[in-house]
C-alpha cells in the first residue's frame, strides 16, 4: 500500500520526469521527419511597409491588416510560403490578451495566403531603447533607423525584466505552441550583436529552457550568424540546442556554400533565415538555386520597401533620400511593382511549378 508520503514522492517524481522529458531537444530523426513534411521553404523577413519596427507592426493603433493582407498576397503570387516575423515583449506587457489576439489575426491573414510564420522572440540588433506608443519617423536614407532590440540592455538595469520575459515567452508559447499556422520559433535573433557577446548567453540559455518547459509542437531554434572567436560559446550553445539548424549569410555564393557544408555535419535540417544583400553578391539568382539544390530553407531579408528603409545599405546612409540604383534589400515597392522585373520573374520560376 502507498502511504501519503509515498504518494507525494511519486507525484514529485512524475513531475520531474515530465519536466525532464519536456526539456529534450528533438532527435535528428524527428527533425528530419518534420522537415520532410514542409516542402521547400522560401520566403522573407516580413515587416509591412507601413511599420518601422516590431512595435509599430503589432500595436493596436498601427496594426495595419489591410497592408499586411495586400503584401502577403503579393508574396503568395511570387510562390513564397513562409515569413519570419519579429515580436516584442513590451507589446505583451502593455496588453497581453490584445497582443495575442492580434497575433491570431496576423496568422489568420497569412494562412489565407498559404504562408506559414516563423516568429522571433528576442533580438540584439539596432536601437537599444524601445517604448510603447507612437514610434519615430524613419531617418531619411538610413537603414533600419527605427528598429529596436528586445530586451536590450534594460535586462541589466531592471532586475524585474527576467521574470517578465519568462512569463511573456511561456504565455505566447502556451497560446500558439500547437498552432499549425506557425512553422517554428526563433528564440533569439543574432545574440551577442552590438558588442554584447557573451553577455547575451544567460538570456539565450533561459529562453531555450522556457521553451522546453512549455514544449511546443513546433521546433525551436536560434540562428548562428557570426563565426568570430567572440561568438564561439554562443554558437556552440545555439547549434547544440536547436531542433533545426538556422543561420544567416549575406556573402557571395562560395562563402555560402562553405557555410552549408560546415553545418551539414550536425545532420539536421538547415534553414537560412537571413540572406540577400545585392551589394555583397548575395543575390536571388545565385543563392536561391543553391539553397533549393541543397534543400535548405531560403528566407531573405526584406520584402516590400517601406519605413524600414532597408533598400539602403547597413553602413551607407543616403541623407538626401535618393533611391539607390542597386537596392540593398527588399523586392517590391509599395505599389507592388518590383525593383527588378527580371529578378521577380526568376523567383517565380524557381518557386512556382
Tell me what you see in this structure.
The chain is α/β, with parallel strands linked by helices. The protein has a single domain, classed as Glycosidases (TIM Barrel, Alpha-Beta Barrel), CATH 3.20.20.80. Helix content is 41%, strand content 12%. The protein has 13 helices and 8 strands. It has helices at residues 4-22, 28-36, 54-58, 65-78, 89-94, 96-112, 154-157, 161-176, 201-214, 232-241, 253-263, 284-293, 341-351, and strands spanning 42-45, 82-86, 116-123, 182-189, 220-221, 245-248, 270-274, 297-301. It has an 8-stranded parallel β-sheet. Helix 12 (284-293) links the parallel strand 7 and strand 8 (297-301). Helix 4 (65-78) packs parallel to helix 6 (96-112), helix 8 packs parallel to helix 9 (201-214) and helix 12 (284-293) packs parallel to helix 13. The protein is globular. 42% of the residues are buried. Mean pLDDT is 94; it is low at 6-21.
| Strand residues, percent | 5-15%
Radius of gyration: 20 Å
Q: Strand sequence of the main sheet, in spatial order? A: 5-4-3-2-1-8-7-6
Largest sheet, in brief, is: 8 strands, parallel
Pfam families: Cellulase
GO molecular function, one term: hydrolase activity, hydrolyzing O-glycosyl compounds
Family: Belongs to the glycosyl hydrolase 5 (cellulase A) family.
Protein name: Glycoside hydrolase family 5 domain-containing protein
